[in-house]
Amino acid sequence: MNDEYMDMMARFISVNRDKTYTIQFTVFLKLFFVFCIGLMTIEPVFGAGQAHTIGDVILKTDQLRNLTGADGSGIGIGIISNGAAGLIQAQESGDLPQNVIVLMNGRGSEGTAMMEIIHDIAPGAPLLYHDFGGGAQNDFIYAIESLIDAGARIIVDDVGFLQVPYFEDGYTAQNLNRILDEHPEVILVSAAGNNAEIHYQAKFSDDGSGYHSFDGMRGIPIAIQPGGMFSAFLQWDDMYGNSANDYNLYLEENGELIALSERIQDGSTLPEEKFTYINDGKSLVQAELRIKKENPSVEDKNIELFINAQKDKVYITRQHLVIEDSIIGQAAVPRVLSVAAISPEKVNSIERYSSQGFVTISYPESTVRQKPDITGINNVAVSGAGGFPKKFPGTSAAAPHIAGLLALEWSLFPSIPADDMRNALLSTALELGEPGWDPAFGYGLPDAIKMYEKLQGLKPDNPLDSSLAQKPVKSIQSKMEPPVMLSGSGEITGPVIITSPGTYTLGKDIVHSAGSIITIMSSDVTIQGGGKRIEGLSVQFIDNTPIDQNAILIQSPDSGKLKNIVIRDMVIEGTTNAIIGKQLEKLHIDGCTLSHNAIGIGLYGSDNGLIENCLLSGNSYKGLAIKDGSSDNLVKGNTIEKNLYGIDTIGSVNTILEDNIIRDNRREDIYTPKEQAPDIIPTVTPTGIVPCPDANYDGICDDPNGTPQPTKAPTTSSVPFSYSEEISMTTIYTYPTYYPTYYPTHYPTPHPTSCWHC
To answer: What angle do CA 449, 450, 454 make, to 5 degrees?
Structure first.
């Protein structure tokens, strides 16, 4: 059964079918033939351990090891993810070697799973792990530089940044270009992202009322169960930091606003709107996400939207989403290898969630980039160490396959420069889609044997010198500082946990994500902001679940109350909760600007506090919430404006409002309870959105025979969801939530936790 015979079969079977089907079927036959012959004639060199990725067979890396004896020795591989929890467990089972170097660790276990895939393919390659840094983009760059300094020649990551410029290269991209210029011996590999089904892009089209028309509808229908949360990010193609076009982002239920982002773009601001919505009620919320243009006389811009949604609690109709151009961040950088994902069961079909190209860039000049570059295998077996699922889906699983393959090849040809190695990978790949490059698969599926044959005949013009080709691997001090424990007093320059009384100073602006930035766990603490700024960011891992961010969390480590906390003179933007306190006595907040968060200040079970001289503006949910039996708090001399709700004091006692300006809040200035019967807490998930078997991880429930089936909308839904198989209401498929947080995050709790440090 040679290639010519398979092509003849494909042509015969495809009579009266279109050209696309013919190509797809031909590819399928070729892959099936390769796969079957490989299984019959080759005994893969499976390492010890509980699990081995089938991607090793499909990519022919097992054949390359058997043919050449290569194992990746001497080629250090750096891995960046949300943590290497379960590392010792994976080492004990034989799924990872004992000599893994950890420069900095987090709390998740996705990094461990990525390393297992690499070790299966390149068992001799030294492994170096570094945490992603909590979400700050400078921390991500530090992580890469630390891994290079420790001897990594290949670095693979699965970190998704949603707050990067969509239409130009931002901080991360610019620094990655610099790093690759400085290090010709390094290859960067990045997961393309799992954003295809949470993305929308189009030129703004006014429906006649100032709102964008989504194919004739005013908004994207979204259903949010109680406890569900999602974040929405909107950008348009103005230069980053120089936008004079004003677009706003709204979430409306039955014509009523329930979340908003209304930043004013005045020529010196970001072309960006974002908010996080938490359904803290007891009923299913059925809403529409809408985009409005505030200056109708100016030119319509290209708009781009991402919806970062929580698994099994947030449901979005595919009908109005756009899979194309859904690659952003480091995966969009030309010299970074971005990796799409296919399943072992459907090697000729891209995963529905795998981000796709092209990548449209507007600045400094208009260009279109061919991304992704290559395709890897997902839905593969890992050990499950650290509680990670034993089936690893997503581009997060596809990317380490490519890293392992490159290590094998490079260990055979260590003097070949990175650019030549990348070119050899792409030029020998098996096409899976259209001839040449394809916006779904890139150049296709790697073939380790064909790549090896190409490298054998390659004589590089500028081979790497021996010092770079034989780079030693060593343990070093990370360039990043882990979260620090502060005691007594000191300067705050990054995430901290304060454990004793004292006066602390915000030493610089802090841009960060992943949990609380400042955690106060002691009484008698003063923080002087000095006018400096804290901003939250958003990152993604495989589950696409928004990370609950608190700029300042104040909470006792035990059941007692903290007393005499003072927070002065700082700016906090873009978090879930700017300042949140639970069970406090005499909290004093003075002279702070808290804008464009979900909640500006949230006090729960707290007494005798003073909030004065603050600006609480543009928060997507509440400016100020004083709740859960809080009593005798004074709110004095503040401006509380342009939030969804200004002040919510329901459930508090004797809250005193004095000399405040409370105005222009979109729903209510002062939130008061309505006369209505209490909602009944549902005891079961609404019909049709119960979590279900989903063996192919496409977000569509499988029937007992494994055939993908459409997920149905709740029977009570008033939103016009579609019920077809191809365009259906579906979950954004995720695994159980992994929060790569360093510090305790408590309230509000959109996800179940069993311990304060989880």
So the answer is: 120
Question: DSSP letters of 239-296?
Answer: PTT-B---EEEEEEETTEEEEEE-----SSB-SEEEEEEE--SSS-EEEEEEEEES-T
Instruction: Please give the order of strands across the beta sheet that includes 229-236.
Output: 199-203, 302-309, 229-236, 272-278
Count the Cβ atoms, other than its own, within 10 Å of residue 366: 10
Q: How many CA atoms lie within 13 A of 258 on its CB side?
A: 21
425 and 540 in a single domain? The answer is no
The answer to whether the CB of 494 falls within 8 A of the CB of 479 is no
Range of the domain at 301: 199-318
Please list, residue by residue across 622-660, b when 16 or more beta carbons sit within 10 angstroms of its beta carbon and e when fewer do.
bbbbbbbebeebbbeebbbbbbbbbbbbeebeebebeeb
Check residue 675 and give left, alpha or beta (phi > 0: left; psi -120 to 50: alpha): beta
Q: Which of 265, 216, 263, 205 is nearest to 238 (CA)?
A: 265
The sign of the dihedral angle between the CA atoms of 738, 740, 745, 750 is negative
Exposure string for 475-484, b = 16+ CB within 10 A, e = fewer = eeebbbeebe
**CA proximity to 132, closest of 92, 162, 93, 159:** 159
CA distance linking residue 541 with residue 275, whole number of Å:
19
CA-based R_g, the chain, Å: 26
Residue 242 and residue 353 in one domain: no
Question: Which residues make beta-bridge pairs with 23?
Answer: none
- Does residue 111 sit in the same domain as residue 15? no
500 shares its domain with 626: yes
Closest CA to 472 of 149, 179, 188: 149
Q: Domain check: are 61 and 76 in the same one?
A: yes
Q: How far, in Å, CA of 362 to CA of 166, rounded? A: 9
Whether residue 307 contacts residue 232, with contact meaning beta carbons closer than 8 Å, is answered with yes
Q: What angle do CA 352, 357, 362 make, to 5 degrees?
A: 140
Residue given tokens 């909640």 in the structure block? 599
Report the share of the chain in percent with pLDDT over 90: 58
Measured CA to CA, the distance from residue 178 to residue 180 in angstroms comes to 6
**What average pLDDT does the chain have?**
82
Residue 483's pLDDT band, with cuts at 50, 70 and 90, is low
Residue type, 538: S
Report which of 572, 615, 567 is spatially closest to residue 587, judged by C-alpha positions: 567
Tell me, yes or no, whether 34 lies in a domain.
yes
Total domains in the fold of the chain: 4
57: left (phi over 0), alpha (psi -120 to 50) or beta: alpha
Tell me 122's DSSP state.
Answer: -
704 within domain boundaries: no
Query: Rounded to whole angstroms, what are the CA distances from 22 to 335, 726, 735?
Result: 33, 21, 35
Say yes or no: 187 and 227 in one domain: no
Q: What is the pLDDT of residue 547?
A: 62
CB count within 10 Å of CB 469 equals 18
Please identify which residue in the block is written with the tokens 């600045």: 363
Burial 260-294 (b: 16+ CB within 10 A, else e): bbbbebeeebbbbbbbbbbbeeeebbbbbbbbbbe
Residue finishing a domain among 402, 428, 461 = 461
Joined together, the tokens standing for residue 373 give: 């570059």
Q: What is the pLDDT of residues 299-342, one digit of tens each?
A: 999 999 999 888 778 888 778 889 999 999 999 999 999 999 99
d(Cα 536, Cα 65) in Å, to the nearest integer? 45
Paired with 657 in beta bridges are 635
Whole-angstrom distance between the N-terminal and C-terminal Cα of the chain?
Answer: 55
Residue of 440, 455, 197, 483 whose CA lies nearest to 338: 440
pTM value is 0.79
